[in-house]
Write the structure tokens for this entry.
Amino acid sequence: MGGQASSQLFAVPDQEQILRETGFSQATVERLYQRFQVLDKEEKGYLSKEDLEGIGELAVNPIGDQIINAFFQDGRETADFQTFARVLAHFRPAEGPGGSENVNSRLSKLKFAFQLYDQDKDGKISRAEILQVLRLMIGIQVTDEQLQCITDRTIQEADKDGDNAISFEEFAKSVEKLNIEQKMSLRILK
Ligand code: CA
Ligand code: CA
């Protein structure tokens, strides 16, 4: 252990593509890769759900499970470094050029946030899905009745076509005034 580690530390796989996609600086990608390698205890080259559950920030995040699921789209059970970096890029302000095309962009962050709610992936946030997230986020301080109330109000305010669910367009419109960059910040890196 350790003998060749120092020379391999910065050999980030697919580095060029990751830099382009995420808008991260090279230093950030290198730090993320070190973090990835630490999480990948058995040096498999990819992370499992159990590995990600070791991230303290996610363990204490009320929607940590939803965020962890975002690393494993399309039924996959492992996340390689590129996937890891892409998902984390949603939670970081853009660094350097590339703005609107990379996953740091506002639209991309919105889509990602929408997916965190839309757990059954039918393209709509249902009442039950809102309730589930709200329960996780503010569950302890409010009664079930209050929670139902907040859910109804959230839907009423965002639901423009009256189907009792929130489409991506409705979602994007309702959070238009929020500072999504700030809301989506999650400090994975120390
Ligand atoms: Ca849904
Ligand atoms: Ca609707």
